[in-house]
Design a protein that fits this description.
Length: 523
């Protein structure tokens, strides 16, 4: 055979192989480009389950499932209302922005799903149990609120809880999970869990998650060296009581806080998240190899942007979704994609009083968008997404404000405002710490359309607001909204449907629909 012909065949074969590899569907990091922080994850058979944090939102403590570790769907919430008090109810001038329930832990033990969390808002540790991931969930709680804890059911039949920041502590729980066996007793597990970072520490080691593999215990934590980035710390021990030895496990892109998960075919990953500006804290998966009885995270210490897992599908409809507000018999009044900003007043909203519409009524006087009760929210999603609503403002009263917002401390919204009997479309954003009218346009009609478009690509963190009088032709209004992630709210920006009164109560608005659009990129 001619040598040149052989070389040609080899060349063609190589090109074909590269083409096939290039066409192979791979997953991309982040696996969810939306605010899903503080994940805790388990596998039961060939299904993965994950809990996450939504803090002040109601219902709260979302539970998701996945068949491939990449594509997740909401299954339930552990609670409808965390607690009844002024802060959670957004009453008497109080709120619980940035608080509510924090980092949870999900386990599966003796045929039961167990999810625990803690809350400064209640001052308690909350534990939820159910035989079905869809609920209903049974709750029990006890004081105090154990910070960033992990629950662990050990092989000796005992149940342990590890908690704290910097100095980590351990206690034993009663078998019925109703509280510690020895109330008030504190045992130090690791005196300084941040030590492996070998640097001055801004955020001491917290976010504990404990795992056991081949007889050894592995405790995951996050710390944040001053002037550095969020860092994964892992401690290892032969006994749960120690002694523990620690290592710096990953320091790349600030991807940190989480734990270990294995696949049915024996592969291992670390599930972690990254602070990513206005969209929030977004989940990543990092490959793990075992070397000398240590989990080694990443590829040469780096977080890969592609993973040998099934490709990412749209976050619609399983994480966010459009809603025409029409309901068939037996359908949920509000699908799981919706959460109220704080506990709602259920007497002041309805999807049945006018068929095919969400009605939001005013029942008290408020002074701003962030103080308004019964604001209905969904996550924004990256890299680019838009939310659209149609609003009937015919029953608004003097001083009422209603529309579509992007909720965070530095919020912005487009809506209808009635002042001195004049109905106007207004764009409002924070200036000098106060909500300020940036642009106002008088209108004579009652039905209006609003759109908020968010660009999170490469942390642009900018949004634009639009209005339409016919639902077809759109006009930009106001100015671009910069969307910084702020700790007082501790949450990514959310699309928000709202209505509040500033002068008299009794008015209402009807939302015809909410539609969300997801885009993969924006130049």
């Amino acid at each position: 055979m001619n040598k040149n012909f052989v070389y040609l065949l080899i060349f063609i074969y190589t090109v074909l192989q590269e083409s096939v590899f290039a066409q192979k569907n791979l997953a991309n990091n982040p696996i969810i480009h939306a605010d899903v922080p503080d994940m805790s994850m388990i596998r039961v058979g060939d299904i993965y389950y994950m809990s996450s944090t939504t803090m002040h939102m109601s219902p709260g403590l979302p539970i998701m499932s996945s068949k491939d570790l990449v594509n997740w769907k909401l299954e339930s919430y552990c609670y409808d209302r965390l607690v009844e008090n002024d802060a959670m109810n957004l009453t008497n001038g109080q709120n619980t922005y940035g608080r509510g329930s924090w980092a949870s832990c999900i386990r599966y033990h003796n045929g039961m799903f167990i999810v625990s969390t803690f809350a400064a808002t209640s001052g308690k540790t909350h534990i939820y149990t159910s035989k079905n991931i869809k609920g209903p969930w049974k709750e029990q709680s006890f004081a105090p609120s154990y910070h960033d804890h992990t629950i662990f059911f050990d092989d000796d039949g005992k149940t342990y809880l590890i908690y704290g920041a910097g100095k980590l502590k351990i206690l034993e729980l009663k078998s019925d999970l109703s509280g510690p066996i020895n109330v008030g007793e504190e045992k130090v597990l690791i005196e300084n869990a941040s030590a492996p970072a070998n640097a001055p520490i801004m955020l001491p080691a917290e976010g504990s998650q404990l795992f056991k593999y081949k007889g050894k215990y592995y405790l995951f934590n996050i710390c944040w060296p001053r002037g550095g980035m969020r860092t994964v710390i892992i401690h290892r021990a032969d006994k749960i009581t120690g002694p523990w030895e620690g290592k710096l496990a990953l320091q790349d892109l600030g991807v940190a806080q989480g734990g270990l998960i294995d696949t049915p075919d024996g592969r291992w990953f670390a599930y972690l998240f990254r602070d990513y500006g206005g969209v929030g804290r977004i989940p990543y998966l990092v490959p793990v190899k075992w070397e000398n009885d240590w989990p080694v995270l990443g590829e040469n210490g780096k977080v890969p942007m592609t993973l040998d897992l099934p490709t990412n599908k749209s976050l619609i409809p399983n994480i966010v979704n459009s809603d025409e507000f029409t309901r068939k018999k037996g359908e949920s009044v509000l699908p799981l994609v919706w959460q109220w900003n704080h506990n709602p007043d259920n007497s002041l909203w309805s999807i049945s009083e006018r068929k095919g519409f969400l009605r939001l009524k005013t029942g008290r006087i408020d002074t701003s968008f962030v103080s308004a009760r019964n604001t209905l929210t969904q996550r924004t999603i990256g890299p680019v997404s838009a939310g659209l609503v149609a609003l009937d403002a015919s029953k608004m009263k003097e001083g009422d404000v209603a529309g579509l917002g992007l909720l965070q401390k530095n919020y912005g919204f487009v809506g209808v405002k009635i002042e001195n009997g004049i109905k106007s479309i207004v764009m409002v954003c924070i200036k000098g710490g106060k909500g300020t009218d940036v642009e106002k346009i008088s209108i004579s009609q009652n039905k209006v359309y609003f759109k908020a478009e968010c660009n999170f690509k490469d942390r642009a963190d900018i949004a634009y607001f639009y209005f339409s009088l016919d639902g077809k032709s759109w006009k930009k209004i106001g100015e671009p909204l910069k969307m910084p992630y702020t700790l007082p709210h501790f949450m990514g920006y959310r699309f928000s449907l709202f209505n509040y009164a500033t002068q008299e109560v009794g008015g209402f608005v009807d939302f015809d629909y909410f539609r969300i659009e997801e885009k993969k990129s924006k130049k």
